[in-house]
Amino acid sequence: MARFLLTRLGLAAITLFLLSVIVFFGSQVLPGNVARRKLGPFADQAAVDQLNHQLGTDKPLYEQYWNWISGLFHGDLGTSLSYNLPVNQLIGPALVHSLKLAAFAFVMVVPLAILGGVVAALKRDKLTDRVITIGGLSLTVVPEFVTGIILILVFGLWLDLFPVSANAPDGSSILTQLHYLFLPALTLVIVLFGYIARITRAGTIESLDADYTRTAVLKGLPRRTVIRRHVLRNSLLPTIAVIATQTGYLIGGLVVIETLFNYPGMGRLIFTAAQKKDFPLLETGVLIVGIVFLVATLLADLAYSLLNPRIRYATAE
Amino acid sequence: MDDTQRRVDAIRKDRSELENHIIDEYAAGKITRREFVRRGTVVGMSIPLVSFLAAACGGGGGGGETSGAGTTPTATGQVQAGGNIRVALIQPTTEPNPLLVQDEGGAGLLGSTGEFLSFSNEKLELEPRIAESWEPNDDGTVWTFKIRQGVTFHNGSPLVANDVKETFDKLINPDGGSANAQSALGGVLSPGGIEAPDDATVVFNLDAANGNFPTLVSSANYNAIIIPADLDPADWGKTFEGTGPFKLESFTPKVGAKFVRNDAYWGTKANPDSMELKFYDEEGPMILALQGDEVDFVEHFSVSGGKALLNDPNVNVIAVKAATHRELHMRTDKEPFTDKRVRQAIALSIDRQALVDGLWEGQADIGNDSPFAPLYPSTDTSVPQREQNVDQAKQLLADAGMTSFTVELNTWNGFEIPDLAQLVKQYAAAIGVTINLKITDAGTYYGDGVFGKSTWLDSVMGITDYGHRPVPNVYLTAPLSGDPKVGVWNSAHFKNDQYDSLVKQYVAALDIDSQKGVAKQIEELLLDETPIVFPYFYYFLSAAKKNLLNTTSAATGQFDLSKAGFTS
């Protein structure tokens, strides 16, 4: 297991390094430059050149990259070019916000989608199955801003049950925060439910048809025990992998939902950093999302190996 | 001679030649009462004084009031004391630094705690703030401002004339000053031109005569909040040091800021206990937040994004006339637009009223292909309005031997601009011109903002957005001047010596009659040459909950909530 973890950590480090290089050089392809973005299109070129010099963005790319990455190894995340603030002061609160929303959405969607998927599989080809699979899929393909706006109109404006913004006032209790986060989390549930339920359904059907399940049934085990011990244990393996791959999206990819609900999370922060070519902020933001993603997939692998002895034994060998 | 006349004479004896000239114009009925008030405040007369003179001197003539305030004035009335006003503001694009701010969100932050020499209100009148009064010398080349005494910064230190001098020295510093402030003050005020002979006096020695100078250093130039002389503008965001009726309680980048009443304010104390700004990346969520009762005031919204508010019975929409506009440029030095008849044909193909109705629900004034918006008092409205005329446009193209051609129209994807581009394409098709649209993001369109490195400045045809200016000077020079040092935004590559000479005369003119006379010639020249189509000038819209009264908005994006409050 230790070797497995070390290998994964090594691969993660290489992935993060490549990610930082791609993001850095990729952001340089965007037109314009940092000072021009800061001073606006009508600013005098001399002023733009001077500000670029002050910010160090007129230095060669490799030098800018080296300065940033060497600072990173010394614990210095750098200073945001567009906000003139230490990057950690911007990333910290945004990450906390994103984690809160992601966690709340996960807590709602994972049990719901797994339950939905299993029920659909058990009621295969019946009306319940159709409702869950087709309904879930239909909701998934609706763009998240459409879902979000409908939820805001119905629950925020007409019924006046939930706030239309997701950011609770400072010092709010956990319950108040959850109240504010409910609509964006529900939007995410609607976006993710169909996908996760469908994967769970497929895995469950495969397990239900498997020889070991037939054997368990023939052994005379109660249906509930068969499902819990034999079906779920195997059917959840692809579901776990899918859930883990959604973490990157949930932490750093919710630009539309965060904008719609005016929620100061990582998605908006990274997006505006990219727009402004604020590469210290962009790089650090992307790296943090990358780390969260890698940790999530690592945890998924561990869960995978715990659920599936074959993987555990293969790793141990 | 009655008492009133004696008082008038006594007042006039102490006023400058320029001020007396304005009084004469009003008394002779050449300018309206509203225009007299506006011009009087610009040249340094206080509002009570100018009101007295307006009543005493009569004149003013009726009608002809093409300038002035918004179509829907702010809702006023009795309000309760105290309260917290929640404001939705578009996300500032830069750090809060008076030198760097160049957008509405940033301007809103600066104006929350900072104060200007004067405040340019929605009627384009200047209300004294840090400056108690101001007056020019006889030819308008030197302006002397009297600085209010007893004003303190929020940190307790007194404000003196040197703070004003240092503020403006920093703004116009060619090495690291404010690019935005310099777009208004460039060629008007140069480094070394400001003096502070004593704690209560600041003297601005201008590069050339300028009758609109007080406006250029008012809140209309939103970078020009007065900050302590020893404060580095880069550190302003740590404390939001200012002298205004609100002071900073907290600021969270990307999220918002909270301000509380400044009990040491020199003037009438703010009515609300506090004011809370919430930043939004998009207009839609701001509007939903107002409807969902999560904010009380939306600082600015567009017709296209906020139609829902225009007919919302729970909301007061405040419309302020503005000079904000789009410019459709055609390169005068490149085919197919070297022949002015082709440019005129494009301009004639456009149905401006349909644009104003369709894109702006009527919340805009029609443009007449010059920067002279109907809002400006110097605009000569006797110049015939260009109307859509497809037959004449086709004839002009035939005369120019260009009955059909294809051209690329470049612009960027923001506001109503893509819709405008699409409509221009349709209008042009009706006269046989095929327009291919190339709509990119703002960064790609503006590029480096210099000739040779910018689609905006290099494209044969393009649409560019221009923000509000309380006087048309910048619009007349930067996008149209043939002098390469001045015409830095001349995307039409327009070069006309007569035009340049007329603009110089206009800028130097101190009285409204002279300005109007030159304006008429400029308007006629631009209508004939048509380097740029100015289709409309749209209004600045704010929205407040029905129970929030006494808010003030200006077309520069600033707002004053110090007198505002709730009825219930």
Describe this structure in words.
Chain A is mostly helical. Chain A is built from 14 helices and no strands. Chain A has helices at residues 2-28, 34-39, 45-55, 61-73, 87-122, 127-141, 144-158, 174-209, 211-218, 223-252, 255-260, 266-275, 279-307, 309-316. Chain A is globular and about 80 Å long. The N and C termini of chain A lie close together (9 Å). In chain B, 32% of the residues lie in helices and 21% in strands. Chain B has 20 helices and 22 strands. In chain B, α2 runs antiparallel to α3, α12 (340-349) runs antiparallel to α14 (390-399) and α19 packs antiparallel against α20. The chains are: A mainly alpha (317), B alpha+beta (568). Chains A and B meet through α2, α3, α5, α7 and α12 of A and α7, β10, α10 and α16 of B.
Coarse shape of chain A: globular
- The Rg value of chain B, from CA coordinates, equals 24 Å
The oligomeric state of the chains shown is heterodimer
Shape of chain B: globular
Largest sheet descriptor of chain A? none
Number of helices, where a helix is a run of at least 4 consecutive DSSP H or I residues of chain A: 14
| First and last CA, distance of chain B | 52 Å
Low-confidence stretches of chain B: 60-72
- The number of strands of chain A is 0
In total, the number of strands of chain B is 22
**What is the CA-atom radius of gyration of chain A, in angstroms?**
24 Å
- Residue ranges of chain A: pLDDT <50 for 5 or more in a row? none
Structural class by helix and strand composition of chain B: alpha+beta
Distance between the termini of chain A: 9 Å
Q: Note the main sheet of chain B.
A: 10 strands, mixed
Largest interface: A-B, 47 and 46 residues
Report helical residue fraction of chain A: over 70%
**Count of helix runs of chain B:** 20
Query: What is the helix content of chain B?
Result: 25-40%
Q: What is the typical, i.e. mean, pLDDT of chain B?
A: 89
Q: What order do the helices and strands of chain A follow? A: HHHHHHHHHHHHHH
